[in-house]
Amino acid sequence: MLETFATPVQFAAMSYTPKYGGSITPDFPPQFPEAPTSVLSMTVVVIEQLANDGTGKALSHGTGFMWRAADGLWLITAKHVLTGRNPFDDTHLSATLFEPSEIKVHFGVGRGSPIYGREAWTIPLYDKDKCPLWSEDPEFEKLKTDIAALPIDLGRSDIFCINDEPDFGLYDNMFTHVGFQCFVVGYPTLAVSGFMLPIWRSGSIASDPRVAIDGKPIFLLDAATGPGFSGSPVWRLQIGPTAFHDSSLPTGIRIDSDAVIRPSFVGVYAGRLNHPHIGAQTPYVFYANRIPLILRAGAGRARVRPLL
User: Fold this and answer.
1) Can you give the three-state secondary structure of 67-98, one letter per residue?
2) Residue 209, helix vs strand vs coil
3) In what order do the strands lie in the sheet with 117-124?
4) What is the pLDDT along the chain (308 residues), one digit of tens a residue?
5) In the Cβ-directed half-sphere of 211, how many Cα atoms lie within 13 Å?
6) Do the beta carbons of residue 62 and residue 47 sit within 8 Å?
7) CB-based contacts of 283: which residues, under 8 Å, 6+ apart?
8) Is 217:287 a contact under the CB 8 Å cutoff?
């Protein structure tokens, strides 16, 4: 006898597109009431590339983060977010040949205060003579470093900056190996509200970190990212006991176990490899140590805004 089966029920794929970014005062009990808001998240900003017709419409977006230097505040991002051009061959990234002339940036404000949030400002990218206001890598023609620094003066000093924390840079000699975890911190979409906190996308170092890729200051990640992450800071976070390079010891390694989390800022996310054998999900990251060189090249463009 033939066995018969009922026709299976077909379900439509369920989709949900929330606005993220967050509120810390919802009208329901929190799941993690003791968890702090990451200061590092508040230093990351969403950058809207505005149309050049005066409508204020965002045609695309990227990510950036704030940096406090001796001469003032700087917005760090991928250079192509400001230019609309591929840094490697100078071609337009948009089929319409769009190049932004101004951007809207949602800054994290209220640093050092119990009341903090976001403040949006529209920032020009060129001066009255059509000269770029940003600073780029002094070796850009050789290295094609996709990082730019734009001087920012909002008339206030309480902007959250990536290097404000006292331990910034203290853990840069953490033992690092291919396969270790990293986080790309940015905005895959403009559907963001509230505190406009970014998404932390986990990945791992996909190339031997000591070896520069393609003769440029680049290392690779294995992570799922997208265009909106361009300009995102990339962090190495070590949770629990941490190994450090220490040439004074026979093993060359020292183990510290007296902290919960140790962060190390390692680079700026710029894009993904486009190769038929690798696929489009292998991000590349430019070295963080290019930023001081870029800021020195643009010294004097920013105004001094010390931390309150």
Assistant:
1) EEECCEEEEEECHHHHHCECCCCCCECCCCCC
2) coil
3) 117-124, 102-109, 44-50, 58-69, 72-77, 148-152, 135-136
4) 555 556 667 776 677 777 877 776 778 888 888 888 889 999 999 999 999 998 999 999 999 999 999 888 999 999 999 999 999 999 999 999 999 999 999 999 999 888 889 999 999 999 999 999 999 999 999 999 999 999 998 888 899 999 998 889 888 888 889 999 999 999 999 999 888 999 999 999 999 999 999 999 999 999 989 889 999 999 998 888 887 888 888 888 888 887 788 889 999 999 998 766 665 578 999 999 999 999 998 877 766 455 54
5) 9
6) yes
7) 184, 203, 220, 221, 223, 225, 229, 269, 271, 272, 273
8) yes
User: Residue 230 burial by CB count (10 A; 0-12/13-18/19+): exposed, middle or buried?
Assistant: buried
Any bridge partners for residue 76, and if so which?
Answer: 65, 149
Write the CB contacts of 113 (distance below 8 Å, at least 6 apart in sequence): 158
CA distance 198 to 223: 16
Eight-state DSSP code of residue 132 = B
Positions of E strands within the chain: 44-50, 58-69, 72-77, 102-109, 117-124, 135-136, 148-152, 181-186, 199-205, 218-222, 233-239, 242-245, 253-256, 261-272, 283-287
Cα distance between residue 210 and residue 217, in whole Å: 10
- Nearest residue to 183 (alpha-carbon basis) of 150, 136, 222: 222
The whole-angstrom distance between residue 27's C-alpha and the CA centroid of its chain comes to 31
Q: What is the pTM of this model?
A: 0.90
Which tokens go with 135? 């600073």
Check residue 286 and report its DSSP letter.
Answer: E
